[in-house]
């Protein structure tokens, strides 16, 4: 599992882990039922505190991305990918709303905004 921690990021380390693991789950890189590294192993691999890793796992579990089975470990949760995808869609909509607001303030028209998005998306 490739998780990259950036000390230059304004996001706390546990949030960086949560964000990257969510992306891996939603992209299918981490499949439903996949076993995750133990909290201690991940902390050791990333050279961070066990407490930080535990907080990331707790956050992922509270959001429904992973399940922890006492004595067995943590696994990618199943059955609620559609709900998780909805969460991501809402976030993208919020970002687009901000972009539209900024574009209007800069005098950028709808067609020009579409062209910019098409260019950025590679279409």
UniProtKB/TrEMBL annotation:
Listed Pfam families: GntR
Ranges of residues in domain HTH gntR-type: 11-79
InterPro entries given in the database record: Tscrpt_reg_HTH_GntR, WH-like_DNA-bd_sf, WH_DNA-bd_sf
Molecular function terms, GO-annotated: DNA binding; DNA-binding transcription factor activity
Entry keyword tRNA-binding: no
Lineage: Bacteria, Bacillati, Actinomycetota, Coriobacteriia, Eggerthellales
The protein's name in its UniProt record: GntR family transcriptional regulator
Keywords: DNA-binding, Transcription, Transcription regulation
